[in-house]
Amino acid sequence: MAMHSRFRPDRQLTARMVVTMFLLGLLYVAFTAALIVLLKSVVLVVVIAGGLLGVQYWFSDRIALYAMHGRLVTPEEQPRLHGVVDRLCAAADMPKPKVAVSHMDLPNAFATGRNADNAVVCVTTGLMRRLEPEELEGVLAHELSHVAHRDVTVITIASFLGVIAGLMVRFAFYSQLLGGRQRDQNTAVLLVMVMAVSALVYAVSFLLIRALSRYRELAADRAAAMLTARPSALASALTKVSGDIARIPTEDLRTAQAFNAFFFTPALGPGTVVANLFSTHPTLERRLKALEAISAELSGEAP
């Protein structure tokens, strides 16, 4: 699935993406079939959901930029930022994505877009203000590796399938509630069955997407560290950004949490054991340990 570039291919990531999408596809085919059997009236919902998925796929970059108050910038407006992206794209031998800036104090970055030719890499002003040049380079290399590995597209589609399930359930609930008053007992049983099936589908989807998301972050860290040959700079950026996010006001974090799966680091305060278990990202300690191992590998030391 990885595009041709000098980013080191990650076969485990590719295999996980294929397996995740295959399992999610089976899951939602079964989900749709179950709803058709139960409700006999979900064809319209399937059509609407398919249309929404198409909109998400084709316009994911614009939707994400709008939600995060991002704006495309020219090399004249942001020469430092464009210079780093130019150097990294040349080193990776990949097309240069569009570059955007979000005027938020939240220190973060993300990549979005359906493919390399329509990708956008966005950084916040809070991130640029806090990081040294080599740290910013590490973060941008991390985001560019997501584009090269094409996992941005996979995670976009996978995440949106949950929205489809929610839409179907809502339609089922209101259609039965409004149209089945003469069959109150049957309606109640039907709703319980639909909700049970939906809860199972959502739970399995949630776990599959979170597992893929955590691995893809480790893969991006490794690809960025190998491309820049400076894993310590990426580790420094991770430590600095994670510490600063913990001090961001809760209201600002809530605004950004819907995009956690796309961020360099999750927009969360201090995590609990349960939060880390279901997080879109590995723990900071795990990422730093992996980067330390890459540093030893690059220096020729024994693991």
Question: What features would you describe in this structure?
Answer:
- The protein has 11 helices and 4 strands, in the order H-H-E-H-E-E-E-H-H-H-H-H-H-H-H.
- The chain has helices at 11-39, 43-67, 79-92, 125-130, 133-149, 151-179, 184-228, 231-245, 250-256, 273-277, 284-298; strands spanning 70-72, 98-102, 109-112, 120-124.
- A 4-stranded mixed sheet has the order 1-2-4-3, with helices on both faces.
- A hairpin with a 7-residue loop joins strand 3 (109-112) and strand 4.
- Helix 1 (11-39) packs antiparallel against helix 7 (184-228).
- The model has no long low-confidence stretch (mean pLDDT 78).
- The active site is at residue 143.
- It is found in: Cell membrane.
- Residues 75-294 form the Peptidase M48 domain.
What's the SSE blueprint?
Blueprint: H1 11-39, H2 43-67, E1 70-72, H3 79-92, E2 98-102, E3 109-112, E4 120-124, H4 125-130, H5 133-149, H6 151-179, H7 184-228, H8 231-245, H9 250-256, H10 273-277, H11 284-298
Parallel strand pairs: 2-4
Antiparallel strand pairs: 1-2, 3-4
Helix pairs in contact: 1-6, 1-7, 2-6, 3-5, 5-7, 5-8, 6-7, 7-8, 7-11, 8-11
